[in-house]
Each structure stands twice: as structure tokens, then as C-alpha cells.
Amino acid sequence: MKFLKTALAATVVALGVHATTASAQEIEIKFGHVGGPGSLFEKSANEFARLANERLEGKAEVVTYGSSQLGTDAQLLNKLKLGTVDLALPSSIMSSVAPEFSLFEMPYLVEDRDHMRRIRDEVLRDVFYDAAESKNYRIIGIWENGFRQITNNVRPINEPADLEGIKLRTPNGVWRVDMFKTYGANPAPMALSEAFVALQTGAMDGQENPLVQIYSQRFQEVQDYLSLSNHVYTPAYVLAGASWSRLPEDVQQVLIETAEEVEAYALQQGAMLDDNLLAKFEEAGMEINEVDTQAFVDGSSVIYERFAGEVEGGQELLERVDELR
Questions:
Q1: In a domain, 130, yes or no
Q2: Going by C-beta distance under 8 Å and a sequence separation of 6 or more, which residues neighbour residue 21?
Q3: Residue 211: which domain range?
């Protein structure tokens, strides 16, 4: 009998140890994004996971799911609210979450990455963080999607008039659609995962994205012209949702500190990829040109007027960004 009690006690202790270990291992932090292999999203998310997992020491594990494995940006936003995904990396779609995010729909707003760094630290950490929390999301870091360029199969784009009649895939968000309508294009919002087939079949003539997204999505295989417009700079937001409050505080702190550390990495990688990719587009047979930037700036005044008039505090945001140039 004594032996039986001892054996049972040992079993209970063993089960307790196993349960504690299993419990720790069960904290899988699912991080979904739409970036393909080689994209800046993939590089940034993987670097974040590597650093965070070293620091979490088995308490939790960040697991990344790229290439829209867990859904489109819109689906990921919904899954964050449901708590079935823990982190996501939305970009342009945030303009549909809260009006303040439409700031980065304004063409030629961001001068360069140094300017963006100042905007991030002196404007976004209060205004955008509060805007996200008002919609039950939490931003824990601001990374990069990048400066956006135009590709198409019709003609080189030198000035807004060259976009006349071109069927152009854009991200979801009314501002980007309205901007390209103003330029004369026929824009249509579409998930990034659907864009390649739309371009391949001719359902769309062109699209606009940062160079690294263009390359990682293989658009160079189905597009003839690359026009370096730099028309919009889009950040990417490391976003948490309903499951955030269920994470232990020490895990939350590691994730926040790591996401902010990777901000510098994302900017550095974005600049490096921009420098290295042009030769690859040329090798793929694309015709590359630079646009008449002033013509696009002149054609964008109506968008700025709308933003200042329709978004509460919009004019103040524009002025704060301009002061940081």
C-alpha cells in the first residue's frame, strides 16, 4: 500500500511537471501576413520571431505565417478581433479601420526614410496608437511596406495623363482608389493574393506596390513597364487584437520591445532591397522609367484638400508631418 501511494505521488508530480511544460509550450503566438517569399514583410516578421523567441525562453513562441496563409489583410483584421490570430502586419488597409491612417494615402507625403523615422517617433506613436485602440486593436511596432511604384502592360507612365483608362489593381481603401481616379486610371481594390492572376489574364492592366512586393509577388513575369513614381509611402503596423490581453505581461513586454527594435531593421532592409532590385527587373525584361514627379504632385492637390476637410485633425497632421522635413 505504501509503495502504491508513493507510485501515485510520483505519477502526480510527473503529470504536474508535464502539464506545466505543455502549458508553456501551448502559448503559440500566430503572426500572419500577406508577404511572399523574399518580401520585406517576410524578412521583418522572421527577424522579429527570431529575436522574440530567443528572449521568451520557452514561455511562448512566435510562429510566422506568410503568403496569406492565414488570410487576406481584411480576413486577418477580423481574426485579430476574434482572437484566432495574435499578430498581423497590415499596411494600406488600415485606412479603412480609422480615418487617421489615411494620412499615408497622401501622395508624396514622405520625403525619405529619415523623414519617416521622425514621423513615426514624433507623430504616430500617439495619434495612430490611440486610433487603433479606439477600434480594439493595439499597435506594438511600426515597420515598412515602402515607397510604391506603378507597373502595367499598356505604356510607360510619365505623368498622370498616361494612366488614362488603365485598369489598375490597388489595395482596399477608398483614398487610393480616389487618388488614381483623379489621375485618370480605372482602379479596382483587390487582395494581393489575387493580383498575379488578374494581371496574367488581363483582367487588370497594372498595379502599384513597393519594389520588394512587386518582385516577391513575381509581377515582373506578367508586367512590361515599371514606372518609378514613389507616389505613396506605406508603413506596416505590427498589430495585436483580442488575444493580447490573454498573454502574460512579461511576454507582452518582450513582444513590444522586440517589435520596436525591428523598426530600424525594417527601414534598413527596405532601403537595401530598393537598391538591389532594379537590376533584377531589368534582367526580367521590364522597361523602367522615372516619372515627372512635379506633374503628379500638381495633380494631387484635390486629395490633400479632401483629407484636410474630411478627416478630423487632418490639417494638423499634415502640418506636423511637413514640419519634420
A1: yes
A2: none
A3: 28-323
